[in-house]
Amino acid sequence: MNKIISSGNLWLDQNNNHISAHGGGILYYDKVFYWYGEDNTQGYLNSVGISCYSSTDLYNWKHEGTVLKQEQMPQELQAKNMGRVERPKVIYNEKTKKFVMWMHVEQKGYALSSAGVAISDSPVGPFEFLFYDRPVLFEPKEGFDQHTNEKELGNSFRDMTLFVDDIDSDGNGSLDAYVLYSSEGNWTMYIARLNSDYTWIDLPKTSNRIRPQYTIDDLGDKWSRQFIREMREAPTPFKYKNQYYLMTSACTGWKPNLAEYAVANHPLGQFETVGNPCVDDTKETTFDSQSTFVLPIDPNNGQYIYMGDRWEPDDLGKSTYVWLPLTVDNSGEVFIEWQDEWSYENYWIN
Ligand code: GAL
């Protein structure tokens, strides 16, 4: 049995295939880790769908299959129509007992830029695709993004993640959860509170793409704009001692760049940028990776795993994973350190 995490190399599943779960995230449910991500084995414009792998130790992974197939999605999202899904995340809803998946659905050209939602009764699927749409319509002072038709369709939805807090602030039977995504043509990040089923944001769902145009005042405690006009993406939140942390990357496509983290005392912000968490990252490329998830190992002691993607744009299925120890010290400062090989049981011992 493998007991080592080795970043930037092939990572084989039980069938000796390289794990294909890119832009992924992890759900811990009933003592099992489920890793969901993009199945890019057939390349960029031949999206297979969302894969799932399971593990009890985070080192050895079993391929559970394609839990949402691209061919089961609406016509216009199917691979033959240049449909593609990116950065899927799955969370569990205590109230409905459903596993809820959100993803960035896209077509060639990145103009579709919408949120897709799917649900399942089991962590290993099959997931039923519910719909895709854009959560918010708001006109920033710089105007709507034209490439993504924001004025007609709502603000664009690209790199995304979900965050579940450990509180149920309104006692509705499910923990508070949020979606974080790059919007306004990637210029500004949005954070929106999810409804109690986690199937949409906590606002009336509008139909036929006719929707009210929101103002900041309408949405004050359900939605916020962060990093305004800063072009941040790859949102990766985590919580440490009642403070909310959010790692993001700059916006340079598949090429890695310098990560930054920000801190707030509420999941909706206001996030204040602190700086680059990477130690001795001489190339300033987040150790050649882009963030996708932070997994708590022992959060009370500031111990987490940083998960990033090292993209191979010419052969996306060969992209590898960069998983490194992320430590928050007593003063709340965040450090990510390179390790050629490491195990999370041993890293923080000394
Ligand atoms: C990145 C983004 C990826 C993917 C890529 C396409 O910036 O983080 O998820 O969308 O661009 O170029």
| CATH class term | Mainly Beta
The stretches of 5 or more residues where confidence is low (pLDDT under 50) are: none
Give the strand line-up of the largest sheet: 1-2-3-4
pLDDT averaged over residues: 94
Q: Assign the CATH superfamily.
A: Glycosyl hydrolase domain, family 43
Secondary structure: helix percent: under 10%
Instruction: Count up the helices.
Output: 3
CATH topological fold name: Tachylectin-2, Chain A
Strand content: 35-45%
* Shape-level CATH architecture: 5 Propeller
**Total beta strands:** 20
What count of domains describes the coordinates? 1
Largest sheet: 4 strands, antiparallel
Task: Write the element-wise H/E pattern from the N-terminal end onward.
Answer: EEEEEEEEHEEEHEEEEEEEEEH
N→C terminal distance: 25 Å
Please tell me how large the radius of gyration is.
Answer: 19 Å
Derived structural class:
mainly beta
Identify every distinct bound molecule in the structure, by name, code or SMILES: beta-D-galactopyranose
- Morphology call: globular
